[in-house]
Recover the amino acids of this structure.
């Protein structure tokens, strides 16, 4: 028995650990460091219809136990991702979750329709929560009506299950979660980054050229845990949790909060080997907890 | 191959005001392929500071398995690094990036090496390799003031070395470009590392010379995955951007739009 295996819509995961979108590129760089087949899945960098250069630099700033980023969805565009990035990942035995972004509904629909047909794409992650682009992104993720409409439009054309990536920058995240569930989402991924700002001590001006950036890293973990707890009680579709996951202890916490699998983001920058290290350490942690199978941990926080 | 290794600190000393020289030993040294490559250091195993610190390799020696880093204790991360004791270990990821190619200069030719501040260190290994090839090296090194000058003797042992300080407290007064304007040198290729305005001025001063520039940019991952250190290029049709960490940090003159 594989104690770490998790079944989710479209995804037969050999373990519930995957790198989060935007923190792993298209896997090329990390593929030089270890065998990507060890991973449960890979959430590739957001893909848009046309290539995007992204925001001016500086694009990142370190903060207490975290970092701000405003990359701006830089990517080579749908055609190149289909022609170069996804075929390169076919050498690995790992399902790909394609993060789909756009400025308008039609952009998302076109990218979703085409990228969902790629052989190794087993699910889509609808990015309605990027805080660093002027149009689209977070605008869809903070309005339940728009979020539902976009989800339904993408579901109508996608050949694979659709997960919707939620923004924490809302008053009540369960409202958005319920809206995308009602619109047909197969799952939820959460949380994207929290909008933040860091100022230069000498000049008083924002450090990041975009002024604001998305906060990630251990600093956001309590927010992610609380929101996953809330959403997992409000919807019946599974959650892939992320937000500051850095070690096996964090993985246990996210599963306990209600996530069925866990994505690792910023920690990849601190330790590029963090995902395989967590995967190797997990069985021993299950032993310590007296748990046979990792799925037994899902939603433990809900018990009265 | 990129390694992540607990390297042992052989020695650490302050060689100029807040400038530290740290000698590290480990297997990673065997993987270094060119002067100008850098390493990404995790200064402790807590979440504060969270990210690694990119530091260029000043020199390395495969036989002893040792490399020398020179860094300025500027903020919290490098401040903590400066307090490390000899014999302790530090988590190093590297070697990273593409460095200088000494074989671009023919034996017998003259190379101009121009460094600014904490951009000076990678030029040291470069100069050692160039001089070993029989290339004649002229060094023009710029610093803020006399207290910030380091490795003057080390460079002087390899070739003519000019020190330039902004406040005139050591060597000539002004910027490196002022010195080169006042006293031009004859050379076939230039190699430079320092603040971007300095790189810009040097590239503009020698439009017809073969040149190689090492850039500095805020980094996240250091391996090319996060897209934090992206620069626009001069020829955006064929190559719209480059990543300083993995495509650079060294680029031929004319590649990066500065």
């Amino acid at each position: 028995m594989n104690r770490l295996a998790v079944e989710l819509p479209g995804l037969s995961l050999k373990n519930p650990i995957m790198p989060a979108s935007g923190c792993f590129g298209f896997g090329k760089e990390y593929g030089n460091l270890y065998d990507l087949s060890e991973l449960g899945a890979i959430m590739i960098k957001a893909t848009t219809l046309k290539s995007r250069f992204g925001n001016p630099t500086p694009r990142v700033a370190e903060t207490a136990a975290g970092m701000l980023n405003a990359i701006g969805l830089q990517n080579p565009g749908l055609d190149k991702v289909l022609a170069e990035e996804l075929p390169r990942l076919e050498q690995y035995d790992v399902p790909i979750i394609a993060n789909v972004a756009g400025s308008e509904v039609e952009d998302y629909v076109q990218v979703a329709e085409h990228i969902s047909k790629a052989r190794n794409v087993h699910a889509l992650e609808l990015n309605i929560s990027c805080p660093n682009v002027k149009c689209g992104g977070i605008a869809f993720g903070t309005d339940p009506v728009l979020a539902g409409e976009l989800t339904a439009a993408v579901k109508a054309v996608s050949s694979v299950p659709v997960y919707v990536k939620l923004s924490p920058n809302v008053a009540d995240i369960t409202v958005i979660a319920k809206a995308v569930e009602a619109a047909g989402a197969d799952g939820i991924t959460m949380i994207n980054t929290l909008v933040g700002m860091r100022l230069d001590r000498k000049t008083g001006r924002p450090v990041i050229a975009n002024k604001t950036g998305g906060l990630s890293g251990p600093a956001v973990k309590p927010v992610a845990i609380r929101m996953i707890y809330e959403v997992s009680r409000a919807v019946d579709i599974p959650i892939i949790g992320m937000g500051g996951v850095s070690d096996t202890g964090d993985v246990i916490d996210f599963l306990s909060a209600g996530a069925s699998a866990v994505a690792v983001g910023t920690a990849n920058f601190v330790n590029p080997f963090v995902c395989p290290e967590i995967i190797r350490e997990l069985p021993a942690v299950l032993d310590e907890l007296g748990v046979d199978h990792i799925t037994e941990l899902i939603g433990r926080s809900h018990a009265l | 191959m990129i390694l992540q290794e607990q390297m042992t600190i052989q020695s650490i000393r302050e060689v100029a005001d807040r400038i530290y020289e740290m000698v590290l030993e480990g297997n990673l040294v065997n993987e270094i392929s060119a002067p100008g490559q850098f390493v990404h250091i995790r200064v402790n195993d807590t979440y504060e500071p969270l990210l690694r610190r990119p530091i260029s390799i000043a020199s390395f020696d495969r036989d002893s398995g040792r490399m020398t880093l020179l860094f300025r204790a500027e903020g919290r991360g490098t401040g903590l690094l400066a307090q490390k004791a000899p014999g302790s270990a530090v988590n190093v990821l590297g070697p990273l990036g593409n460095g200088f190619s000494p074989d671009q200069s023919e034996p017998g030719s003259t190379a101009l090496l121009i460094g600014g501040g904490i951009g000076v260190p990678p030029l040291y290994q470069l100069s050692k390799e160039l001089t070993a090839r029989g290339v004649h090296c002229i060094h023009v090194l710029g610093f803020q003031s006399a207290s910030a000058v380091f490795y003057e003797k080390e460079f002087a042992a390899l070739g003519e070395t000019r020190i330039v300080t902004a406040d005139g407290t050591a060597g000539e007064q002004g910027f490196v470009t002022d010195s080169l304007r006042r006293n031009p040198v004859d050379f076939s290729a230039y190699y430079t590392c320092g603040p971007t305005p300095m790189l810009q001025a040097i590239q503009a001063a020698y439009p017809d010379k073969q040149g190689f520039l090492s850039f500095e940019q805020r980094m996240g991952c250091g391996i090319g995955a996060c897209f934090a250190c992206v620069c626009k290029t001069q020829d955006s049709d064929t190559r719209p951007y480059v990543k300083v960490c993995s495509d650079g940090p060294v680029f031929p003159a004319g590649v990066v739009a500065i």
